[in-house]
Design brief:
alpha+beta; Thrombin, subunit H; 6 strands
């Protein structure tokens, strides 16, 4: 029961007491009116006191009610303010959640793109590693070839130096022989010397060919009876017999000589190491 209900009950009880008193007076007229009046006055006085007390209680109850209303209104206002604040916070939170979700979607898309790029980079890296390994392998092969070529170049430079020295020595010897021949009243023109047109029977091989396919170094020399000006046949025996052309001896050493191709080789065939040089067309047996 609420506080107001209690007040109403009290008021009803007061009026009930009043009616009770009146009814008692009505039904008790046979008694002594003075005594009855005195008693009734006492009752009325008592009832007035009770009513006053009840009024005081009612006023106190009203004040409590007003205070309770004010407290209730303040509590409601506070709750409404809290609800509004919570609503604002909830709205802000929902906005933050939406923004976070958008950022998360962007981050996920970026992560997927990054993973795809990483996979592509990984594949490209593997391809580059394979290519680098191939390049390193080829570079090592080139280094080996370069080392071999450098060795060959140094060897050829030494041979060229030796040939130049031999050529210089031969020129000095030819000059001395020419001087000696002229002093003896003989011609120093080698073409007038008999026997150069028919070189001895010799067979040799091509040891080296220049890049222009115009000069060759052969494995026979003055110890075999050849001299500068002799012409020899050049041919190949493998894989089948093939005539290549003729060469003329231009410089001679005891065990080797240098010859120049007369004209061009047959059909421009490239001379190779191991090809045969001979004073006869017959190959070496």
């Amino acid at each position: 029961m609420t506080f107001v209900g209690k007040i109403l009950v009290i008021v009803i009880m007061v009026f009930a007491l009043l009616f009770l008193g009146i009814s008692t007076v009505v039904f008790s007229t046979h008694t002594n009116w003075k005594e009855a009046t005195s008693k009734e006055r006492e009752k009325v006085t008592k009832a007035n006191g009770e009513i006053q007390n009840l009024k005081t209680q009612v006023d106190a109850a009203k004040k409590d009610l007003e205070k309770a209303k004010a407290d209730h209104k303040a509590a409601i206002d506070q709750r409404e303010n809290q609800i509004a604040s919570l609503s604002d916070e909830n709205k802000t939170f929902q906005n933050d959640v939406a923004a976070t979700r958008s950022k998360l979607e962007v981050a996920q898309e970026s992560a997927r793109t990054a993973l795809a790029e990483a996979a592509a980079n990984r594949t490209e890296t593997e391809q580059l590693r394979t290519l680098k390994a191939d390049v390193d392998k080829q570079a090592n092969e080139y280094k080996l070839q370069q080392t071999e070529l450098n060795d060959k170049i140094r060897e050829q430079e030494r041979q060229i130096q030796t040939i130049d020295e031999n050529n210089k020595d031969l020129r000095d010897r030819v000059a001395r022989y020419s001087t000696l021949l002229r002093k003896s009243g003989l011609s120093d023109d080698i073409t007038t010397v008999k026997g150069l047109e028919n070189p001895p029977v010799v067979h040799g091989e091509v040891a080296r060919v220049d890049t222009k396919n115009s000069q060759v170094e052969i494995t026979i020399g003055s110890d075999d009876g050849i001299v500068a000006g002799h012409e020899l046949y050049l041919f190949r025996t493998k894989p089948q017999a093939q005539y290549l052309g003729k060469v003329r001896i231009i410089t001679v050493d005891p065990d080797q000589a240098v010859a120049r191709v007369i004209g061009r080789t047959v059909n421009g065939i490239k001379i190779k190491e191991g090809d045969i040089v001979s004073s006869t067309i017959r190959p070496r047996s």
